[in-house]
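Could you show me just one protein sequence together with its fold in token form as a worked example?
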Amino acid sequence: MSNTNDELLTRLTKIETLLASLVEQRAVKEWYSTAEVATLLGKAEFTVREWCRLGRVHAEKKKAGRGTAGEWIVSHAELTRVRNEGLLPDPNATRLRS
């Protein structure tokens, strides 16, 4: 009986560890890097950076510590908007039609 309890306790400990890991992975962040957004949306990081650069996604630049360019970051609210509504219209496409 003691052996069964030990096995059960070991299995429960493993389950708790895995559950904690899953919760940590799904934790909502305030800001996401382009790499994180790409992973969450199933796109290439280059694609997400282009969306930011072209204004298809509302994003901000964060100082990166190397040079003056900085890195794009996307808010959780914007990530949710993109998932639900898609990309913003391409501002360059409207200029071309005019």
Q: What stands out?
A: The mean pLDDT is 88. Residues 28-97 form a domain with the Multidrug-efflux Transporter Regulator; Chain: A; Domain 2 fold (CATH 1.10.1660). The longest helix spans residues 2-25. The chain has one domain: 28-97.
